[in-house]
Amino acid sequence: MNPGQHLSAADAPLGSAGLGQPDCPPEAEALRGRVRAFVRERVMPCEPVLDAGGDAARTALRGLQAEAKREGLWALPLPEEYGGQGLGLPLYAHIAEAEGASDHGPAALGSAPLLDVQMLARHADDTVRKSFLRRITGGEVRTCYAMTEPETPGTDPGLTATRAESDIAGGWVLHGRKWFTSGAGEADLITVLARVDDEGPGTDSLSLFLVPASAPGFTVVRELPVLGAGGQWEIAFDGVAVPPEHAVGAPGQALRIAGERLVLGRVLRCLRWLGQAERAFDLMCLRARSRGQSAGPLADRQLVQQMVFDSLLAIRTTRPLVHEAAARLAAGEDARLETGLAKVAAARMLQQVADAAIQVHGAAGLGPDTALPGLFRTGRTARLLDGPDELHITAVARQVLRGYSVTSRTDPPGR
Length: 415
Prior knowledge:
The protein is built from 12 helices and 10 strands. Helices cover about 45% and strands about 15% of the residues. The chain is α+β, with helices and mostly antiparallel strands.
């Protein structure tokens, strides 16, 4: 590549960041390669259109989804019972990095609704499962999850203000407002966290409800750009009637159900952030090798070499943490500590690597000709998504410290 040649989003080769991955089982190796090629060759070139939203984005996404179905790459981790391919987490963890190298990869390949499908399959009424799960898996019905509220700390669900009042027919009437709800502007079904019958602060009265976007009283208030990018929404519920069969799980069990999806959701995000960091790393190295100055290529500069080293170190040291969390979760073990470590490490790592890649690109790294602004934006928001860094740091430290006794003179417990 000539020094001044344009670098497209999918140009960079797989470099050293992709090495050091846990051994991929033979049955997943070829599939990972196919997913990687699909994301790089089909999804990444469409990112400008997909990022812009609107009718053009919807058309482009439907086209990508149709291609993924034709190529046998659709809904890989979703249950076979509902039309997915049933790829379990031990295998899917090796695919998720490649799939998540683009923010649009999971939607294009049909894995985006995994958390909602699993939640509804386990906890929804049989009528809901029969009505929606195959259609969600097939991409006909779009879902989102509404938990965070304006003026209410997302880290303290006990203060949830949205309320669900019981009615004489056995159903519920919802009042409240949610924001930073991913995909709400395009969703057909919204899972809503609400307090039953307006009881006081606490978590025992929290429940989950499935609300059709077509229900009277539901309103999309506004889109909330995140550092200039769309996809997050504020929504309102003004007397929305919810039939009894649309309650998800037993009353008061919302946080237990939410906890199931949060742990898996955090692991999936971390895997996808690894894929995005590898993408930024490859772009940085390609820029360093191709960009020449009067004194020689950028790759010969020690400060650039330092950024390459630090970025590679960050990726290589984070990847085992993420895959350890995935392995413990897949084995049915308590993965809270490992997930907390992985989530903080992966968020910091993505922000660090994307920032270094922008620095090596110079002004070009701030503009629309590479994926780097979007990767950096994801890295910064990653430190708040699914709980801020501080929440996970505190939770992990408390869990570790509980294993130590001030009166004990024996060796501390193993970790």
